[in-house]
Design goal:
Elements (H helix, E strand, L loop, with lengths): L2 H56 L10 H14 L5 E6 L5 E4 L8 H5 L6 E7 L2 E12 L2 E10 L1 H36 L1 H14 L14 H57 L4 H34 L4 E4 L1 H11 L6 E13 L1 H17 L6 E9 L2 E8 L21 H6 L6 H11 L5 E5 L3 E8 L3 E10 L1
Parallel strand pairs: 7-8
Antiparallel strand pairs: 1-2, 1-5, 3-4, 4-5, 6-7, 7-12, 8-9, 9-11, 10-11
């Protein structure tokens, strides 16, 4: 059963029970009030008749010491005549509670009479022939005799009103129940609309449509739930998109890795087979061996770069406060022997929070890429300066540059702008990918500005830096 149906069902049950009990209580309250009023009037009427009987008995001519039965009957008959049209019936009994006079239709038993005393009133509600009466009884002192006066007052109208009240209330309750069901149907539909929209959203997402969002139709808790669900959907869609991108990146990585292995292995196998299967002169033998050595070194460099990336991801970085001067001194000593390039080092002494060996690897890779992208004799500038964001390292070359559409892709593993040029210089497209991973551990990233034919500027920031002094050196 749906939630809206449960809500409608239980609301209907509660309304029916509430209306039933309240109606029963109301109608019975009115009935009891009316019946109590009638009882009071019947007792008052009995008192009036008793007083009238005693007064009439005093007016009877005294011929005997005691009031005669005939006089009693005469007085009772006169009282009945006076009460004609009121629906009142009377009955007079003697000291032994034997009936002396009774109105026509007064045919009740003597149960009430047995409980009536000389100074005691009593009453009861009885049913005779489909009619309801209030029977009252009291003692009467008349000329030395103790008599018993009983009356019957017709109260059938009160019971009829109760019956009509229940009938009318049942009809009214059914009408109110039907109207309540109709109203609650629309209310329950309105209240459960956000739930239905959420159910539809979950089905759409389960079917693969992660961009589907549930419509917010209220500002209550269900509206907040819808908003939270949409936020969750956005986060889920983003996560799934990232996972899909990662899966695609892994597939591209595997494809590129296989392709990069294929080329040098093909050359190595071909030249090795040529050396193995035929006798070559010394020049061709040296040429073949050189090809095998060159491609082997490229495979070695590629494997080392891949190992660096894997180790960097697993082990993380051990950051500590360190000066930047040793980094620039190391770069100078490493690249100074390269007489085919002109290197310019300009830096401001400071300290940074970093892993020395990892940042050293980043700078070496950036300089290595700059050398591969430049012609012999070109100038390569390495600079460091302290700014409000931290310490900025930059490497600038005046080489071939990178096309604008290629800039966003060059940090991907195995991606090379000019594959033939990179392979000729033992490039495997892994240097910038390794730099990206290392800088991510430092909370930084590469900033690349390049124009085709004019050169490239690659830089990055390291946060939490302190100022010292400035140095500038040029080496060629």
């Amino acid at each position: 059963m749906k939630f809206s149906q449960k809500l409608l069902l239980w609301t209907t049950i509660i309304i029916a029970i509430t209306l039933g009990f309240s109606g029963y209580y109301f109608v019975n309250y009115v009935f009891e009030t009316s019946l109590t009023r009638e009882v009071g009037q019947a007792l008052d009427e009995n008192s009036i008749l008793r007083f009238a009987f005693e007064t009439a008995a005093l007016n009877v001519p005294v011929k005997y010491d005691l009031l005669q039965d005939s006089s009693i009957e005469q007085i009772a008959s006169n009282l009945e005549v006076r009460g004609q049209g009121t629906g009142r019936l009377i009955r007079i009994s003697d000291e032994e509670k034997n009936i002396l006079y009774a109105s026509d239709g007064f045919e009740t038993d003597g149960e009430l009479l047995a409980s009536v005393g000389e100074d005691k009133y009593s009453y009861r509600v009885i049913q005779l022939g489909g009619q309801y009466y209030i029977q009252t009884g009291s003692g009467v002192n008349a000329l030395g005799r103790v008599l018993y006066l009983e009356t019957l007052r017709d109260v059938s109208q009160v019971f009829e009103e109760r019956r009509m009240g229940f009938t009318v209330y049942r009809r009214l309750m059914m009408l109110m129940l039907v109207l309540g069901i109709v109203i609650m149907y629309f209310i329950s539909s309105r209240l459960t609309k956000p739930i239905r929209l959420l159910m539809r959203a979950t089905k759409e997402m389960a079917a693969g449509d992660y961009s589907y969002r549930a419509k917010k139709v209220s500002n209550d808790e269900l509206g907040q739930l819808t908003q939270d669900f949409n936020h969750m959907s956005e986060a889920l869609e983003k996560t799934i998109g990232q996972l899909e991108d990662e899966v695609q990146a892994r597939e591209d990585f595997v494809g590129a890795f296989a392709h990069e292995l294929k080329t040098p292995l093909t050359s190595i196998i071909g030249y090795a087979d040529m050396l193995r299967s035929r006798k070559l002169d010394e020049e061709k033998s040296l040429l073949s061996a050189n090809y095998i050595y060159t491609e082997g070194k490229r495979l070695e460099a590629m494997s080392l770069r891949l190992l660096d990336i894997i180790v960097t991801k697993k082990e993380g970085a051990k950051l500590q406060k360190m000066p930047v001067a040793p980094l620039f001194e190391y770069l100078r000593s490493m690249f100074l022997p390269n007489q085919s390039m002109e290197f310019a080092f300009s830096y401001e002494d400071a300290y940074v929070l970093a892993d020395y060996s990892l940042i050293q690897t980043v700078l070496v890779n950036l300089l290595d890429n700059a050398c591969k992208a430049s012609e012999q004799g070109s100038r390569i500038e390495v600079a460091g300066c302290l700014g409000p964001e931290g310490y900025r390292f930059t490497v600038r070359d005046y080489g071939i540059g990178i096309p604008e559409e290629e800039v966003s892709k060059i940090t991907q593993a195995f991606y090379m702008v000019d594959k033939s040029r990179s392979r000729s210089r033992n490039g495997a497209g892994l240097g910038l990918s390794l730099c990206t991973e290392i800088l991510a551990l430092h909370g930084s990233s590469l900033e690349i500005d390049s124009k085709t034919g004019e050169g490239t500027i690659v830089g990055f920031f390291l946060p939490e830096a302190g100022k010292e002094e400035q140095h500038e050196e040029v080496y060629s």
